[in-house]
Amino acid sequence: MTPGGSAVLVAAAVAAAGGIGSVARYLLDTSSPASAQGNWWARQPRGLWAANLLACLVIGAAAAVRAPSWHLVLATGLAGGLSTWSSWIVGARSRWAAARDLDAVTRRSERRSALVQVLGQAAGGLACAGLGLALGRLVLV
Questions:
Q1: CA–CA gap between residue 62 and residue 119 (Å, rounded)
Q2: Where does the chain cross the membrane (predicted)?
Q3: pLDDT digits (tens, 9 = 90+) for 34-58
Q4: Of 82, 93, 99, 135, which one has the greatest count of Cβ atoms within 10 A?
């Protein structure tokens, strides 16, 4: 695809890449769900982490792409289908709210886990986007 490529072709490519990203997110999320018990890491939705961090890596690499249509395919399509902002936020919020009904020790543990989910994915996302940009500049430019 070229920057002047057909809008219909670009839209189809974005849709196809979004489908690929969505299926990848589903596979990651179902292969490594959060556990109801265990340490703080076992209770994290590891598949969700993987999907979001991989999406940040892809969108970082997409920032290095000079062709606008390819940027749309990678950033809007693939990374958009792969990432799951709403699941990330709602999951952490639900964990935080549900903790109020637990004993004090478990409540603190669950709330720590919710904070790790939010802050860890945000910091990891920034790092992955930066790494993706650096790799994109090396490989794609």
A1: 24
A2: 6-28, 48-65, 71-92, 113-135
A3: 777 777 777 788 899 999 999 999 9
A4: 82
